[in-house]
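Researcher: Good morning. I'm working through a list of sequences from a screen, and I'd like to move beyond sequence-only analysis. For each chain I'm collecting a predicted structure so we can compare shapes side by side. This is the next one on the list. No need for commentary yet; just the structure.
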Amino acid sequence: MTVEFLRELGLKLLCLSNGHGEDAIALRILRELQQHPHPPELAVFPLVGEGQAFAQLENARIIGPVQRMPSGGFIYMDGREFLRDVKGGLLQLTVAQFKAIRAWVRSQTQSGNQDAVILACGDIVPLLFAWLAGAPYAFVGTAKSDYYLRDENGPLARKSGLFAWISSPRSVYFLWERWLMTRNRCRAVFVRDALTAETLEKLGISAYNLGNPMMDGLEPENPASFYGPDAEFREKERSLVITLLPGSRAPEAYANWQLIVEAAGGILSLFADRKLLFFGAISPELNLEALRPILEFFGWRQDGEIKTQRREGSILRPPVSSPQEIRQEFPNLLLPLTFVQRNATMILTQQSFNDCLYEADVAIAMAGTATEQFVGLGKPAIAIPGNGPQFTPAFAEAQSRLLGPSLILVKHPAEVAGAVQSLFRDPDRLQLIAENGLRRMGEPGAAARIAECLIQRFGNSKLPPIH
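Model: Good morning. Structure tokens for this chain:
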């Protein structure tokens, strides 16, 4: 039945998104829609940034003006960033973008196509634009979760004036956001976890909990095998693997990197009797060479520079894993820059993100989406608040609410080593963290489930709207 509707109606879908992470989530859903036997005709409109992620999507044009703002999209974090964006043309851009959305809807109507629909991915901005545009729409709420306000045991203690104000509603979604979700033209609402869906259900909104697309596509290229008849011995002998997540936007990520490398130095000292392997999961948008001076300042040397010292008899105990040994263990892991110090190896890579997440025991994280993905794999992350504009103390505190016991906040880099030691002395806590991550972030496959639901909701006009 659905295929016949799609064939007859010629469904056309415009996807609105407003941020780097939102673009990535939207891209996963749109790819799944394109896999349908009769896919809708797609158009996209990234409202924040230039939408480079959508270059990977075939046959989906950007319908209006895009522009990179000075804040990089983090105007909610700091009023000063908002003012910078206003001076950079934010208001004029927003007006032009809304006109482009209305023009797209009108062009579909004038051509006789009554089946133009909008998928709003992100927060209130694309949701509001979708409603104002006058077409049927669905909403993927990527930013908000009731975990910011409560967990399964009840409301969380109010730690700041900001959250005291936010927690006044019964839901993390404000009254006006919920109003937009109840309009007749709103055909589906997808939220990121069961707790949020449960709250909206109590408020009369039939929200779908189909999982979080940010957990899709994270399968490792080369999963390490620590199992077999000698599994216990190999577990004891293997390196403790720590992934470093400094974020993706310059110049903030470089400042974050300095704090993270300082924290890594404390781990070297505290875990002097165990081999350590650090994976620096570096965004392709950053310059690897810009990270080198910070590493050298904290005593790291590129592998080739210290081979002579080894031959001359310098003492490394226990012996650090060599790049050759690491290549044998992780043959698909690209090693563009490898550094060593005492009992540790540091690998910086821009092309093996999934492996960096899967192979790590713990992360030192100053990122947004990447931290959530790491926690969703059932692993603990330790965060150090930075100076922003994204990873500020307020952002880190909010993220700790979202991720619960899986994210450990420390105030200074010197506290990270002790936090790592405490974690691995408490197996029960690690088990709790593993269960918590899956519960809060969901199982893989969400994008496919959301795409199928969209086909059903938009492909069959006889289905009643969600109330």
